[in-house]
Protein backbone atom coordinates (compact mmCIF):
# COMPACT_ATOMS: atom_id res chain seq x y z
CA UNK A 1 0.00 0.00 0.00
CA UNK A 2 2.90 2.33 0.69
CA UNK A 3 6.67 2.16 0.87
CA UNK A 4 9.46 4.45 2.05
CA UNK A 5 10.60 6.76 -0.73
CA UNK A 6 13.53 4.99 -2.37
CA UNK A 7 16.84 6.69 -2.97
CA UNK A 8 16.44 8.16 -6.44
CA UNK A 9 19.62 9.22 -8.23
CA UNK A 10 19.45 12.43 -10.27
CA UNK A 11 21.69 12.81 -13.28
CA UNK A 12 21.88 13.82 -16.95
CA UNK A 13 19.68 11.86 -19.35
CA UNK A 14 21.15 11.04 -22.76
CA UNK A 15 18.77 10.29 -25.59
CA UNK A 16 15.70 10.44 -23.43
CA UNK A 17 12.30 9.61 -24.86
CA UNK A 18 8.76 10.72 -24.01
CA UNK A 19 5.87 8.55 -22.85
CA UNK A 20 2.63 10.18 -23.89
CA UNK A 21 -0.93 9.15 -24.48
CA UNK A 22 -4.55 9.22 -23.43
CA UNK A 23 -6.44 7.61 -20.56
CA UNK A 24 -9.97 6.46 -21.43
CA UNK A 25 -12.91 4.80 -19.67
CA UNK A 26 -15.57 3.13 -21.81
CA UNK A 27 -17.93 1.83 -19.16
CA UNK A 28 -21.07 3.30 -17.66
CA UNK A 29 -20.45 6.34 -15.48
CA UNK A 30 -22.21 5.89 -12.12
CA UNK A 31 -23.06 8.76 -9.81
CA UNK A 32 -23.23 9.16 -6.07
CA UNK A 33 -25.79 11.18 -4.12
CA UNK A 34 -24.20 13.93 -2.02
CA UNK A 35 -26.50 15.01 0.83
CA UNK A 36 -24.92 17.69 3.03
CA UNK A 37 -26.25 17.23 6.56
CA UNK A 38 -24.67 20.32 8.13
CA UNK A 39 -23.20 23.71 7.18
CA UNK A 40 -25.40 23.70 4.07
CA UNK A 41 -24.90 27.44 3.54
CA UNK A 42 -21.30 26.60 2.62
CA UNK A 43 -21.56 22.94 1.59
CA UNK A 44 -24.49 23.37 -0.80
CA UNK A 45 -27.64 21.43 -1.55
CA UNK A 46 -28.11 17.71 -2.30
CA UNK A 47 -26.72 16.76 -5.69
CA UNK A 48 -25.60 13.89 -7.89
CA UNK A 49 -21.90 13.70 -8.76
CA UNK A 50 -20.12 11.29 -11.14
CA UNK A 51 -17.67 8.84 -9.61
CA UNK A 52 -15.39 9.33 -12.63
CA UNK A 53 -15.36 12.37 -14.94
CA UNK A 54 -15.38 11.23 -18.55
CA UNK A 55 -15.58 13.46 -21.62
CA UNK A 56 -17.63 12.83 -24.74
CA UNK A 57 -14.59 11.15 -26.29
CA UNK A 58 -14.25 8.83 -23.23
CA UNK A 59 -11.22 10.77 -21.97
CA UNK A 60 -10.70 10.63 -18.18
CA UNK A 61 -10.00 13.68 -16.03
CA UNK A 62 -7.73 13.28 -12.98
CA UNK A 63 -6.17 9.93 -13.81
CA UNK A 64 -2.70 9.59 -12.29
CA UNK A 65 0.08 8.09 -14.42
CA UNK A 66 3.54 7.19 -13.16
CA UNK A 67 6.55 4.91 -13.60
CA UNK A 68 7.56 2.59 -10.77
CA UNK A 69 10.96 1.31 -9.66
CA UNK A 70 12.97 3.99 -11.46
CA UNK A 71 16.41 4.12 -9.85
CA UNK A 72 17.87 7.12 -11.68
CA UNK A 73 17.06 9.73 -14.29
CA UNK A 74 16.22 13.40 -14.68
CA UNK A 75 16.37 15.88 -11.82
CA UNK A 76 13.29 16.74 -9.82
CA UNK A 77 11.65 20.03 -10.73
CA UNK A 78 12.91 22.99 -8.74
CA UNK A 79 10.96 23.12 -5.48
CA UNK A 80 8.44 25.91 -5.16
CA UNK A 81 5.93 26.35 -2.39
CA UNK A 82 4.67 23.07 -0.90
CA UNK A 83 1.63 21.51 -2.57
CA UNK A 84 -1.69 22.27 -0.88
CA UNK A 85 -4.83 20.37 0.01
CA UNK A 86 -7.57 22.94 0.45
CA UNK A 87 -10.90 22.47 2.24
CA UNK A 88 -13.08 24.74 0.08
CA UNK A 89 -16.89 24.74 0.09
CA UNK A 90 -16.80 21.28 1.69
CA UNK A 91 -14.72 19.85 -1.13
CA UNK A 92 -11.05 18.98 -1.34
CA UNK A 93 -9.21 21.11 -3.88
CA UNK A 94 -7.62 19.57 -5.80
CA UNK A 95 -9.69 16.39 -5.49
CA UNK A 96 -6.79 14.37 -6.94
CA UNK A 97 -3.13 15.35 -6.97
CA UNK A 98 0.36 13.86 -7.28
CA UNK A 99 3.21 15.05 -5.11
CA UNK A 100 6.82 14.08 -4.37
CA UNK A 101 7.34 12.45 -1.00
CA UNK A 102 7.65 15.31 1.50
CA UNK A 103 5.55 18.24 2.64
CA UNK A 104 1.86 18.93 2.03
CA UNK A 105 0.04 21.96 3.45
CA UNK A 106 -3.52 21.32 4.59
CA UNK A 107 -5.63 24.49 4.37
CA UNK A 108 -9.12 25.43 5.59
CA UNK A 109 -10.78 28.11 3.45
CA UNK A 110 -14.23 27.59 4.99
CA UNK A 111 -15.69 29.47 7.99
CA UNK A 112 -16.23 26.33 10.09
CA UNK A 113 -14.45 23.26 11.41
CA UNK A 114 -13.00 20.67 9.08
CA UNK A 115 -11.23 17.59 10.40
CA UNK A 116 -8.98 16.45 7.57
CA UNK A 117 -7.91 12.82 7.88
CA UNK A 118 -5.42 11.08 5.57
CA UNK A 119 -4.83 7.33 5.34
CA UNK A 120 -2.27 5.01 3.79
CA UNK A 121 -4.66 2.08 3.44
CA UNK A 122 -6.17 1.72 6.94
CA UNK A 123 -3.24 3.43 8.66
CA UNK A 124 -3.62 7.09 9.58
CA UNK A 125 -1.08 9.34 7.87
CA UNK A 126 -2.40 12.53 9.52
CA UNK A 127 -5.51 13.66 11.40
CA UNK A 128 -5.97 17.42 11.70
CA UNK A 129 -8.64 19.59 13.29
CA UNK A 130 -8.85 22.93 11.45
CA UNK A 131 -11.51 25.04 13.19
CA UNK A 132 -10.55 28.43 11.71
CA UNK A 133 -10.87 29.92 8.24
CA UNK A 134 -7.43 30.58 6.76
CA UNK A 135 -5.76 28.00 8.96
CA UNK A 136 -2.99 25.94 7.39
CA UNK A 137 -1.03 23.04 8.86
CA UNK A 138 1.93 21.30 7.18
CA UNK A 139 2.17 17.52 7.20
CA UNK A 140 4.88 15.16 5.99
CA UNK A 141 4.08 12.31 3.60
CA UNK A 142 7.38 10.48 3.40
CA UNK A 143 6.14 7.19 1.97
CA UNK A 144 5.31 6.58 -1.68
CA UNK A 145 1.78 5.32 -2.16
CA UNK A 146 -1.90 6.28 -2.23
CA UNK A 147 -3.26 8.54 0.50
CA UNK A 148 -7.05 8.69 0.75
CA UNK A 149 -8.40 11.85 2.39
CA UNK A 150 -11.72 12.37 4.15
CA UNK A 151 -13.26 14.83 6.60
CA UNK A 152 -14.48 13.51 9.94
CA UNK A 153 -16.87 16.48 10.18
CA UNK A 154 -18.35 16.17 6.66
CA UNK A 155 -18.49 12.51 5.75
CA UNK A 156 -19.16 12.94 2.03
CA UNK A 157 -15.85 14.73 1.38
CA UNK A 158 -13.17 12.62 -0.30
CA UNK A 159 -9.82 13.34 -1.93
CA UNK A 160 -6.74 11.47 -3.10
CA UNK A 161 -3.03 12.18 -2.99
CA UNK A 162 -0.61 9.96 -4.91
CA UNK A 163 2.86 10.25 -3.37
CA UNK A 164 5.69 9.40 -5.77
CA UNK A 165 9.36 8.60 -5.30
CA UNK A 166 10.62 9.63 -8.76
CA UNK A 167 9.83 12.57 -11.07
CA UNK A 168 8.29 10.49 -13.86
CA UNK A 169 4.59 11.14 -13.32
CA UNK A 170 1.66 13.09 -14.73
CA UNK A 171 -2.04 13.70 -14.12
CA UNK A 172 -4.57 13.99 -16.91
CA UNK A 173 -6.61 17.05 -17.76
CA UNK A 174 -10.09 17.09 -19.25
CA UNK A 175 -8.70 15.78 -22.56
CA UNK A 176 -7.37 12.64 -20.82
CA UNK A 177 -3.87 13.26 -22.13
CA UNK A 178 -0.56 12.90 -20.32
CA UNK A 179 3.11 13.37 -21.16
CA UNK A 180 6.15 12.09 -19.24
CA UNK A 181 9.31 13.48 -20.91
CA UNK A 182 13.05 12.88 -20.63
CA UNK A 183 12.80 9.17 -19.78
CA UNK A 184 16.07 7.24 -20.10
CA UNK A 185 15.83 4.54 -22.81
CA UNK A 186 14.82 1.19 -21.36
CA UNK A 187 11.96 -1.00 -20.19
CA UNK A 188 9.57 0.21 -17.50
CA UNK A 189 6.31 -0.53 -15.73
CA UNK A 190 3.76 2.23 -16.03
CA UNK A 191 0.76 2.53 -13.72
CA UNK A 192 -2.43 4.44 -14.55
CA UNK A 193 -4.90 4.82 -11.70
CA UNK A 194 -8.15 6.56 -10.86
CA UNK A 195 -9.92 6.35 -7.47
CA UNK A 196 -13.02 4.80 -9.07
CA UNK A 197 -11.34 2.11 -11.17
CA UNK A 198 -8.14 1.28 -9.34
CA UNK A 199 -4.79 0.74 -11.08
CA UNK A 200 -3.86 -0.60 -14.50
CA UNK A 201 -0.25 -1.72 -15.02
CA UNK A 202 1.39 -1.74 -18.42
CA UNK A 203 4.92 -2.51 -19.60
CA UNK A 204 6.41 0.18 -21.79
CA UNK A 205 9.64 0.41 -23.76
CA UNK A 206 11.27 3.79 -24.30
CA UNK A 207 13.57 4.12 -27.29
CA UNK A 208 16.31 6.71 -27.62
CA UNK A 209 15.00 10.16 -28.67
CA UNK A 210 11.60 8.75 -29.64
CA UNK A 211 8.05 9.23 -28.35
CA UNK A 212 6.06 6.25 -27.12
CA UNK A 213 2.33 6.77 -27.55
CA UNK A 214 -0.21 4.84 -25.51
CA UNK A 215 -3.95 4.61 -25.11
CA UNK A 216 -4.78 3.09 -21.73
CA UNK A 217 -8.27 1.95 -20.85
CA UNK A 218 -9.34 1.99 -17.22
CA UNK A 219 -11.81 -0.68 -16.20
CA UNK A 220 -13.87 -1.13 -13.08
TrEMBL record:
Coiled coil: none annotated. It comes from the Bacteria. It holds the Pfam family CarboxypepD_reg. This is Carboxypeptidase regulatory-like domain-containing protein. It comes from Mesorhizobium onobrychidis.
Amino acid sequence: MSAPAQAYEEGPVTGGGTIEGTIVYRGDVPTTKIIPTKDVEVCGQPREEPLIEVGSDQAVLNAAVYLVDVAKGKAWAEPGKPPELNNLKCRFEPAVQMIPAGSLEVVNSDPMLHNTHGYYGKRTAFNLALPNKGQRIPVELKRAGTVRIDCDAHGWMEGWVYVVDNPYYAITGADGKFSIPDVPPGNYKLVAIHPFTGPVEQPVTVEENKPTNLTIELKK
